[in-house]
Design a protein that fits this description.
Elements: E1 3-6, H1 21-29, E2 33-37, H2 48-54, E3 57-59, H3 62-68, E4 71-73, E5 91-94, H4 102-111, E6 114-117, H5 132-149, E7 171-175, H6 179-191, E8 194-199, H7 202-211, E9 217-220, H8 223-229, E10 235-238, H9 253-257, E11 264-267, E12 288-291, E13 294-297, H10 307-328, H11 331-335, H12 337-340, E14 343-346, E15 349-350, H13 353-359
Parallel strand pairs: 1-2, 1-4, 2-3, 4-5, 5-6, 7-8, 7-10, 8-9, 10-11, 11-13
Antiparallel strand pairs: 6-14, 12-13, 14-15
Helix pairs in contact: 1-10, 5-6, 5-10
The protein binds nicotinamide-adenine-dinucleotide.
Length: 365
């Protein structure tokens, strides 16, 4: 039994919250106490009154929540004001993406808290069950966003992805055919665009060829093939992942130079550093910038744009492990191999191999 704390997210335009009312009910049913920061659910359509009616206690600010709780449920990595509120022995359960944030990894290790990253919790078959729902959302949104920025008033080349009878549709190139890539492809096909998916896994390409019934072109991901195809692209979606590691830079600056002016790149993998050389992290308030005439979109919390959907999809996935952490603390990780893969920081040390590699230091910091 634990005291579970849910602070309000403070990242720019981040309206998700880490726990729904159903999540509160489930935690209370197992004897836990739940503390929610005032207004934490407002952006996701959950009021303080509803949290209270479900049995949660409302606290006035983040400091009070961090002070009270043994286990903190969050959505995004802790921001500069949140890190000092963590303490030794406390558990932080959230998205962390530390391979792209080595300084944050070192700062978190110094707090002595155990930090469990949603995105590295991994099942024996390699699936990432807590990344999947946000990848589904980000993938679907990436196409929607790309289509929007291709409009002339938004800075794009003014092409309708679906075309119309007599006028050809747009070309969508998706790099990485995992969850994000597959969902991007679904929406792009639905709009009527021509879709090509690059992946390194032949098994994945076979799967995509099957499920899309031959409607997408699948290409083995080699730089030369990308170089050849990118000049024809209207929308490029970056969706690669090597779990826990920094994304490989696959699209070079030269490839971007050779793209059409007004084409759009949406690098969803920017949360792991991005697979496009010219990408940098942007925010929902200033989401795009231009390089060599190509519009770049690099928002690292894309699902934050649809908090109503994202919050519910997130708790659906995180709750089962959250209940275990609330029940047994770090012991839950020792008892569950999938959850153990989520442990990025423990006992003052960075323990996840991918994060260690990115930070470039031995275990102790
Ligand atoms: N920006 C956001 O808001 C947001 C939201 C959700 C997910 N993401 C990120 O999107 C990325 C993709 O997530 P996912 O759930 O689809 O991962 P996934 O594991 O399902 O898929 C990744 C795919 O990339 C492929 N891949 C690896 N190296 C490659 C290469 N060199 N060339 C082509 N393909 C390659 C893998 O074979 C795999 O099929 C991750 O970085 C994830 O963190 C970002």
């Amino acid at each position: 039994m634990s005291k579970v704390g849910v602070p309000k997210e403070i990242l720019d335009n981040e309206y998700r919250v880490a726990l729904t009312l159903a999540g509160v009910n489930a935690l209370l049913a197992e004897g836990n106490t739940v503390y929610v920061e005032k207004n934490a659910g407002a952006g996701s359509g959950i009021t303080d009154e509803e949290y209270k009616a479900a049995g949660a206690k409302i606290l006035p600010d983040a400091a009070a929540v961090f002070q009270e709780a043994d286990v903190i449920f969050k959505v995004k990595e802790p921001q500069a004001t949140e890190v000092p509120m963590l303490r030794k022995g406390q558990i932080l359960y959230t998205y962390l993406h530390l391979a792209a944030h080595p300084k944050l990894a070192m700062d978190l290790a110094k707090t002595g808290a155990t930090c469990v990253a949603y995105e590295t919790v991994q099942l024996p078959n390699g699936a990432l069950p807590l990344l999947t729902p946000m990848s589904e959302i980000a993938g679907r949104l990436a196409t929607q966003i790309g289509a929007n920025y291709l409009e002339r008033p938004m800075g794009g080349r003014g092409i309708l992805l679906g075309g119309v009878p007599g006028v050809e549709p747009g070309e969508v190139i998706i790099i990485g055919g995992g969850v994000v890539g597959t969902n991007s492809a679904k929406i792009a096909l639905g709009l009527g665009a021509r879709v090509t998916i690059f992946d390194l896994s032949l098994d994945r390409l076979r799967y995509l060829d099957d499920v899309f019934g031959g409607q997408v072109r699948t290409v083995f991901s080699i730089g030369k093939y990308l170089e050849e195809i990118l000049p024809s692209a209207d929308l490029v979606i970056g969706a690669v992942l090597i779990p826990g590691k920094q994304a490989p830079r696959i699209v070079t600056r030269d490839m971007i130079k050779n793209m059409k002016k007004g084409a759009v790149v949406v690098d969803v993998s920017v949360d792991q550093g991005g697979c496009i050389e010219t990408i940098k992290s942007t925010t929902h308030s200033a989401p795009t910038y231009e390089v060599d005439g190509v519009l770049h979109y690099g928002v690292a919390n894309i699902p934050g744009a649809v908090p109503w959907t994202s919050t519910r999809a997130l708790t659906n996935a995180t709750l089962q492990y959250g209940l275990k952490l609330a029940k047994s603390g770090y012991k839950a990780c020792l008892e569950d191999a999938a959850l153990m893969k989520g442990v990025n920081i423990h006992g003052g040390e960075i323990v996840h191999p991918g994060v260690l590699e990115a930070v470039g230091t031995p275990a102790a910091v």
